[in-house]
Specification:
- The protein is an alpha/beta fold.
- The protein has two domains: about 140 residues, Response regulator (Rossmann fold), CATH 3.40.50; about 220 residues, Methylesterase CheB, C-terminal domain (Rossmann fold, 3-Layer(aba) Sandwich), CATH 3.40.50.
- The chain has a seven-stranded parallel beta sheet, with helices on both faces. Strands 2-1-3-4-5 form a five-stranded parallel beta sheet, with helices on both faces. Strands 10-11 form a two-stranded antiparallel sheet.
- α1 packs across α5, α2 runs parallel beside α3 and α4 packs across α8.
- The protein is globular and about 70 Å long.
- The chain starts with a strand and ends with a helix.
Length: about 375
């Protein structure tokens, strides 16, 4: 059986040891080397050809962001997972690293600064992400980065959901769910849709400090107004609302418009916020007058919610396998035939805008005919 080859890059000897030990306990992963800074890592990536690099953010000589940029400039295609701390400053740097070409991030366990500490915390968050980035095929071989032939073939065989029958339903709001790889995917989509005439509400699986910085990052790069959701806030057209980490986000119809509700209920699909929670509440408010979109991510959060949207007569779009960093969430929806469209990331923004504009135009035409 082949194994996933990992290079660990961190200036802390303790962090390197803990990361190595965390990964060594998994028979599907092999740590092929460690590096104390980015300059050493560049040489080792060339020599060892790892599948995945875990990269510390702060390092002497060459830091993590600079190293990621250098790797992508010279064409290195290995997956990169950043190690970051939970602070506003580090959250901002994390999104700079993702923009530079990193694929995802994990928060550095506090154990990494304590000599002799347990490695369990590091393995719990890091190992699943490494395996999601480099899945194994049926023969037990690692699916290397860039191998899209099988993925394209499997996407062609998907069964699409039938479009809703009866009168055209206007899309009154767009709801989006994403997880691993979603930061860059959401930026790509929101940049391409410009400012929609309806509100957009999204769940990106991310910690509390990071969702606020994520919203600010998107707001600075997109035409729409992007903000972290607040309890009691009204959904406004042309605005994008990001569910805050650690809280479920729901929508609720009131006499003063559709408002946002935040709560700390139980985890759903091991997540809080949960895509299913958001989608299900959206159906309760809008019925079928909505568009649900599921982008790249681990697991199956969004599957039940997409089913509810479909049953209510709403539309569902998911990202295809070839363009997804991880085809867990969109794949779960696509495989059971709940999506009307399965599209490459480059086409999703245009499809959202077209669906919204078409539905509004058709609804207006129907109203004039009546």
């Amino acid at each position: 059986m082949s194994r996933i080859r990992v290079l660990v890059v961190d200036d802390s000897a303790i962090a390197r040891r803990i990361t190595r030990e965390s990964l060594a306990g998994d028979p599907q992963i092999e740590v092929v080397g460690t590096a104390a800074n980015g300059r050493i890592a560049l040489t080792m990536v060339k020599e060892l050809a790892p599948d995945v690099v875990t990269m510390d953010m702060e390092m002497p000589v060459m830091d993590g962001i600079e190293t990621v940029r250098a790797m992508r400039r010279r064409g290195d295609r290995c997956r990169i997972i950043m190690f970051t701390s939970v602070s506003v400053r580090d959250a901002k740097k994390t999104f700079a690293a993702l923009a530079a070409g990193a694929n995802d991030f994990v928060t550095k366990p506090s154990a990494m600064i304590v000599a002799g500490a347990s490695v369990v915390g590091g393995a719990e968050s890091l190992v699943p992400k490494i395996k999601a980035l480099m899945p194994f095929d049926e023969a037990g071989a690692v699916s290397r980065a860039g191998d899209r032939v099988l993925k394209r073939r499997s996407a062609d065989q998907l069964r699409l959901a039938a479009r809703p029958q009866g009168p055209t339903r206007p899309v009154r709001a767009v709801f989006i769910g994403a997880s691993m790889g979603g930061s860059e995917a959401l930026l790509h989509v929101l940049r391409s849709v410009k400012r929609l005439p309806v509100p957009v509400v999204l769940v990106q699986h991310m910690g509390a400090v990071f969702t606020r910085q994520f919203a600010q990052w998107l707001d600075g790069l997109c035409e729409s107004t992007v903000q972290e959701a607040v309890a009691g806030g009204e959904l406004l057209a042309g605005h994008v609302y990001v569910a805050p980490g650690g809280h479920h986000l729901e929508v609720c119809a009131t006499g003063r418009g559709v408002r946002m509700v935040l709560h700390d209920g139980p985890l759903v699909n091991s997540c809080r916020p949960s895509v299913d929670t958001l989608f299900n509440s959206a159906v309760g408010v809008y019925g079928g007058d909505l568009l649900a979109v599921v982008l790249t991510g681990m697991g199956s959060d969004g599957l039940a919610g997409a089913g509810a949207v479909n049953e209510a007569g709403g539309a569902v779009i998911v990202q295809d396998e070839a363009s997804s960093l991880v085809w867990g969430m969109p794949g779960a929806v696509a495989r059971v035939g709940l999506a009307q469209q399965v599209l490459p990331l480059d086409e999703i923004g245009g499809a959202i805008a077209a669906e919204v504009q078409r539905s509004i135009r058709d609804a207006e035409s129907a109203a004039r005919g009546a």
